[in-house]
Specification:
Number of helices: 6
Shape: elongated
Helix content: 40-55%
Structural class: alpha+beta
Largest sheet: 4 strands, antiparallel
Order of helices and strands: HHHHEHEEHE
Length: 174
């Protein structure tokens, strides 16, 4: 029994060591870690023992891999809410045209608590930001007094959400 556990641990350690970083610093994930991520995307509260059974690892090995994935920023485990049910009646996607350093504007947007998602783009906007607010007055304040006041922001265009039809994080790991 003891030697079986040692053999199992060393195989798990070998699998874990395959998860290295490529030249850009992005973690390279093996098939087992991808399978763990998919299990958690289906149910973020799935027990590690059940995940281990599905992917062929011990509960302890799954726990270790999940912690590593969290520490590396590969994934997060969070509760996804419907903004309307928790008091946020207004959402919008804001396209931002920037003069100069796009990074500094994206960083400033990232620091705003109302901004949930920031992406730098190639296209008609330099940055897109998803904003979740309590109401229209709150949204106006964020856009007019905070985003448009940022150094480098040339203009914005807002796309107010009328109805949220789909919000999932189930794209898997393909």
């Amino acid at each position: 029994m003891h030697s079986e556990g040692v053999a199992s641990r060393s195989a798990e350690q070998r699998d874990s060591s395959r998860e290295s970083r490529n030249g850009s610093g992005t973690p390279q994930l093996d098939a087992v870690s991808l399978a763990i991520i998919e299990q958690l995307q289906e149910d973020g509260r799935r027990p590690y023992a059940a995940i281990g059974k599905a992917v062929g690892l011990s509960e302890a090995a799954v726990r270790q891999r999940v912690q590593k994935l969290l520490d590396q920023g590969v994934m997060q485990i969070v509760a996804v809410t419907d903004p309307l049910t928790v008091g946020f009646r207004r959402q919008a996607l804001v396209g931002v045209h920037v003069e100069g350093d796009v990074d500094s504007v994206a960083d400033a947007l990232t620091d705003m608590p109302e901004v949930e998602y920031v992406v730098m783009t190639a296209g008609s906007f330099d940055v897109l930001a998803e904003i979740v607010c309590e109401d229209d007055d709150h949204l106006l304040d964020v856009i007019n007094k905070r985003i448009r006041a940022l150094p480098g922001v040339r203009s914005t265009e807002s796309f107010v959400y009328l109805k949220l039809k789909k919000q999932t994080y189930m794209w898997g790991t393909r």
